[in-house]
Amino acid sequence: MRGVLIKNLREMWLATLLFALAMLVIEILLNIILPQILGQMGDLLERMPFIRQFLAALLGVEVEGEITAQLMSAFVWVHPVVLAILWAASIIFCTRYPAAEIDRGTIDVLLGLPVSRRGVYLCETAGWLSAGLVILAFGAIGYLIGSRAMELEQRPALALVALVMVNLYGVYLAVGGLTCLVSSLSDRRGRAVAVIFAVVLASFLLNFLAQFWDPAKHLVFLSVLDYYQPAAILRDGAIAPADLIMLFAIGLTGWAAGLEITARRSICTT
Prior knowledge:
- The chain has one domain (about 1-265).
- Helix content is about 75%, strand content about 0%.
- It is built from 13 helices and no strands.
């Protein structure tokens, strides 16, 4: 187990660092430009009232009345680039085993070690979970640096930002759990990545369309983003327990199913 953990650390540290630096930079930049967006928001809403609908679709809550700085602070955590970084990290790390190992033809060497399939799976899980924490920690540092561009009274309390990040980590776990399931069924990493990418893209589009198209509102519960509500957290000062439970349940179910399939499936590299 120790040898597998060291192997994972050697293979994952660079990708984790790059994702973390990307999250750091994007959080700094988004927070720096946020005051400029707020300064122009009033004029934009007067000239283009439909902007309010797009904001509601992006933030995931109804935007009524004055748009406050604290509400718009959720923008830095729902921006598509932020989500893309987190999703890409989760997908890359969770397709390493078994899909990538089978694809490279190295699964025989890996399983030849005195470690069970479940043991390798648990080691990969530890790397995936740890990488997510590192990436979000760098995102928090970027937020603290970039938010200095805003007036102190306009910044949400750090406790609320922490709740947003807990909710975001739940999204990371949900996507990763589904990826583990897809990877356990795949012999090709590219195919596994394509499938889960289609799933998260459909999830994003469904969540966005639900703000404009009534039929989509009946299906939005299928989107993982329906359970990610940073704007509601900043507005209400609390996180909805049901959202966290659903995200963790999705992630745990996919992860557990992937564990059993990986442990029991027939693996052939020829």
